[in-house]
Amino acid sequence: MRPATADLDIATVRAFVAVTEDRYFSEAASRLGISQQAISKRIAKLEADLGVRLFFRTRTGADLTEDGRAFLHHARALVGIADQALETLSGRRRSLRVDVLDTRLASVDVIRGFHQSVENLAIEITTSNGLRSARGALAHGSVDAALARVSGTLEEDLRYIPAYLEPLHVLVGRDHALADQRQVEIERLAGSTVWMPGNAPGSEWADYYTALGAAFDIRIDASGPDFGWDYFVEEISAGERIGLGVTERTRVPRHPSTVQIPIVDPVPVYPCALLWHRQNHHPVLGQLIEYVTKNFRPFDPRHEWLPEPDRAAFTAPPKSVHAPSPNQAR
Known about the structure:
CATH topology of the largest domain: D-Maltodextrin-Binding Protein, domain 2
Shape: elongated
Distance between the termini: 33 Å
Radius of gyration: 29 Å
């Protein structure tokens, strides 16, 4: 009795077509680059899946049964469609899609550096909502990699390596008491309120700044609305607020009435990781992983500060990690 449904394995269908054309299992196996035992197993599996016998043996090779003849046209069509699909994808040079939180942040500098290191490389930058949206985008294949702080437990198929650590600065107006300082010891911020209108609840960066505030007695004011960087800088220039969320390489809009000052003793650093899905086989992804690995500078606990959950991953240089190759068994 035939099964009501059967999920056909294209490898078994390809084996069936090869035996039909070559008539001998040994010759069909040679054409497919597998053993005769392997092709026999594939035919047996296909017959089991379909619930019919496809061949009978004769002195002149393998002949099709009535069911085999009925299946042959469809089998050839299945193999043809599969070959067309593979040819379409193998000949397509799709851009490497990388997700970043904001194009003004250091993550874009990392991708620009990689782009300059590889000839004829097509890269597409997308911006989203950080780790919360990047996780789904990586799982669905809409992006190939993402740069974000890793917070909480990741899905089993996601992989990551530390990418960079970015020193934090404060942004103040020209009339602020800190404006004439070349650097600000973090203890001077104790008891202060710093303004971060983009500190979205539940985000990985809000979690970081909550930990920073708790460690150094700094209150985070996340009141908004968040109208973007230009609005943020204009508001800082006009009053006594201290702006946080600015890092060393953040491309802050220029304003004649603001000053950006490094924080020291210790230097709080924001951790960013490179994430990808283990089953993503984009041909350039492995090169990006190697580039990030090579350029990573580890956390220095003598002079820098990180939240405890980030320290283990960022203290030691990452091991060399490769993306899965297209031929690797999944």
